[in-house]
Structure formats: C-alpha cells, structure tokens
Design a protein that fits this description.
31% of the residues lie in helices and 22% in strands. The chain is α/β, with parallel strands linked by helices and 461 residues long. α1 (14-25) packs parallel to α4 and α1 (14-25) packs parallel to α8.
Length: 461
C-alpha cells in the first residue's frame, strides 16, 4: 500500500521534532502534527521560560550583595509585565526557530490534534493522512487533585502568563517544579507558602542534598508547611483571598494557589486503545528498549512514555529511533548515568547514583563530602552554603555518583557527567589539578572519606 508518509509524528515537542528531522535527513517522507505550538513543554511552558524567570528572580540577591562590593544601588523595583513579556517574546522566537527547522528539513507540519484511526491512519481536524510508521510524542500535562475548590488553582502552565504578581502564593508540591517556582516567586518579592505532604522536598534525590535544599529554602524566607495536605480551597468574595483548609482543621490565607504535584502522560483521546498500544500502570505508553510499543508499526518517545522525563532524554530517544528505523544505524537510547538539575535557589544537580541507591545495589562505598560558604558571599555575609558529594565504589574506585547543591551546580555537574560516563575513578579525580579559586576545585581535592564509610589507602593519603 502507498502511504502519504514513511513516518508520521504525533506531537511536535523536543523528542518529536528531533525524530522527524533526523528521519527526514535519512531520506524519509515525514509529517508531524501539533495542536498548540511547536516546541513542546520545554520551549513553550517549561525549561526555557522557567530558567529565564529564575535568572530574573536572582537579581534581588545581586542587588542586596552589591553594597559589600562597594556599589551603591538605588532601591530596585520590578516590572512584572516587562519580565513576563520579554520571556514570552523569547518563547515566540524559539517557536519560530523550531518551525524553520522543520521546514528546512522538509518535514510537513499539520496544525491540529492528531488521533489514530487505525494503525496507519491519523486524523488531524478534518484532514486524514496515512503513514507506514507512526511515532507518538505527545508529552505530558500537569495534574491537579480533585478536591473542593481545585478549579481555583493554577498550574505551571498559567504561571508564565499572570496579569500581575500576587502578594502571596501557596505552591502545593515538593518536586522540582514546586521548588523552582517557590524560588522564583520568592525572589520576585512574593510571600511563598510551600505546602508538602512529607517532611522535606525533592523525594527521590540524594538525602543529604534534599536536606541542604530544604534548609536553604527555609533560610530564604519561604514558609515550609511540611506534612500538610490540602482539603479544600475557598475564595472569599469576588476579589478576596483564598482560604486553604487542611483536613485536620487548619487554615491559612493566600492570594494565589498553584499546584505542582505531578504530571501525567498525554495518552487520552488519541486512539491508542483502538490500535492496540498498551499503557503501563501509570497510564504511560509501554515501550521496549527500542521505544517500540505493542503495536507493530508504532513507537513512542519522551514524557508520554514516563521513563526519564527530561528534554535531552526525549531528544536522545527520538534521534535513536530515527537512526534505527530510517538511517540503517541501529542504536538504543542509553538511560544510564543521565545527569539532571533542579533550578531551585541554590541549584541542585546530580549524575549517577544517590548514596541510597548505591547502598542498595553495590558493595562497600566511600563517601566524600564538602560543605562551605562560597567565596562570593564572604564579603556580603549571605548565609547560603554549597554542598558537594562524591560516591565511590570501594572495590573498583569508580566514582558512581556526583551531587551538588550550590551556585552553578548544573554547569559543574555537566562536566563531571562526562567523566563519570567514561568510568573515571577517584584516583583520576585526585590526579586532576583544580582551578583556584573556584567551587569546582573541591571535587578534585576531597581526600578524606566520610567517617561512617571505609577509607582505602588511597583515600587516607
């Protein structure tokens, strides 16, 4: 049968765009559809605009610290509309870049929501196209629990377009989106209540790093409402505040409620069940190591598969798929030792195993840590501290995990990720000359293992 396309991609986010472009460069006839804007969560309503807001919010501390360095700075004021609109202009620019990339690669863009009619037929609005192979790359969306008043809350999607900044905001959640926006709003002068069910933020990350971030958030002035659940949200009057009620009878007021309690894969309403694509227990598309679904000619990449929900991972998966299926270069996406960062304030970044994971999966360990006040704050007196950690497998001397909480953590860990991916040992770290004075030199000058781990002769020297 002659199809309209060799490949059709449903979803024009980072993974879908990369897969379509690479497949096209291999000579495939490729079509792609998108029901909103090209670029996906990262470019349109995630990583990029959020990081720009992080930059904007940090100027508060820069102004405060300037005096210690001899600068006289008039009392600063923020224009939220200027920041918001400039961020959205950059999103517009990147959206246009993505459109040009698709066009330049010869990929045909269909604007509209794609739905599978059968294993080779996709409906986009009133149009129907056919394809030999199909890639599902529809991403995910934020979820708000169904509680009384939940319709009054916003998510991260709406946070980028607020008509004005609230004086107070309650952010519900303890994951990376919650703590990042807590830092953003706090830096922009908003009173922040961070509401979390457990005792600390960032469950799943290294325990010592979690504690360091949690303590820093509290030190910055964010109200940490730990071990707290929301029972209902009530709005007082047309322009009045919101009342946040807990199941145990507690209550506090705020001017805006934002939920950041999780995301779900975009799998509903696109015809997956009709064509035999199975979902896993979490509602994500079930795929094998080649990103192939249970339908013979359908693959899936990115957040819709709920493997590692990071933009570079989706790009890697999409590229591997295109090379394998259209480039005669079979290769699987490698999900091991993927670095990641949380752009809270201060930043947290990591690569490899947490201490807890290493203790469960490896034998004897050597743990090296460093904690200090960065040089930048020795004049200003700011209390922010940096924490670093290396996890070493004692039997092999391999560094199996690197973690950091502090300024520019993501930039530093990105470099260490190459070394750890290449199998660097602690001896390699010890033999590397540091750049002085920097925070990064601490990673190559740690010589004494933590007291509760077993040092080897090399560590004791």
């Amino acid at each position: 049968m002659a199809y309209d396309y060799d490949l059709f991609v449903i979803g024009a986010g980072s993974g879908g765009v990369r897969a379509s472009r690479i497949a096209a460069t291999h000579g495939a006839r490729v079509g792609i559809c998108e029901d909103y804007r090209v670029g996906g969560t990262c470019v349109i309503r995630g990583c990029v605009p959020k990081k720009l807001l992080v930059y904007g919010s940090k100027f508060t501390h820069e102004f405060e610290d300037a005096a210690a360095y001899g600068w006289t700075v008039p009392a600063p004021s923020l224009s939220w509309p200027t920041l918001r609109d400039n961020v959205n202009k950059e999103v517009d620019r990147l959206n246009a870049v993505y459109l040009r990339l698709l066009d330049g690669a010869g990929v045909k863009l269909h604007m509209g929501r794609g739905r599978l009619m059968d294993r080779h037929t996709i409906q986009i609005g009133e149009q129907t196209v056919t394809a030999d192979k199909i890639l599902v790359a529809t991403g995910g969306h934020p979820v708000i629990p169904s509680i009384p008043g939940c319709e009054l809350a916003i998510t991260s999607n709406e946070a980028f377009h607020l008509p004005e900044l609230p004086k107070r905001i309650a952010i519900v959640g303890a994951g990376y989106i919650a703590v990042e926006f807590a830092g953003i709003f706090n830096g922009l002068g908003v009173h922040v209540d961070l509401v979390l069910r457990r005792d600390r933020v960032l469950r799943g990350f290294d325990e010592e790093c979690r504690t360091a971030v949690h303590d820093s958030l509290k030190e910055s002035g964010i109200k940490m409402r730990t071990e707290t659940e929301i029972g209902r949200i009530v709005k007082k009057g047309e322009n009045g505040p919101y009342e946040i009620h807990t199941p145990l009878g507690g209550m506090f007021e705020t001017d805006l409620v934002m939920y950041a309690t999780g995301r779900a894969p975009n799998t509903k309403g696109i015809g997956l069940e009709k064509v035999g694509v199975q979902l896993d227990k979490a509602g994500a598309v079930a795929v094998d190591e080649w990103s192939k679904t249970t339908a013979e000619n359908i693959w899936a990449v990115g957040d819709v598969t709920d493997r590692i929900n990071l933009t570079p991972v989706a790009i890697m998966e999409g590229h591997c798929f295109a090379d394998t299926e259209f480039g005669n270069k079979p290769r699987k996406a490698d999900h091991r030792t993927v670095p990641s960062a949380v752009f809270c304030q201060p930043e947290m970044a990591n690569v490899g195993l947490t201490e807890e994971e290493a203790r469960r999966t490896l034998g004897e360990l050597r743990i090296f840590t460093a904690a200090f006040r960065p040089m930048k704050y020795t004049l200003s007196g700011r209390h922010q501290r940096t924490f670093m950690k290396l996890i070493v497998e004692a039997a092999t001397d391999k560094v199996v995990g690197a973690h950091m909480v502090g300024d520019d953590a993501a930039e530093l860990i990105q470099g260490l990720a190459v070394a750890i991916k290449a199998g660097a040992t602690k001896a390699h770290f010890d033999a590397t000359v540091g750049i002085h004075p920097t925070a990064g030199e601490e990673f190559v000058t740690m010589r004494t293992a933590r007291a509760d781990t077993t040092p080897t002769r090399a560590a004791a020297e």
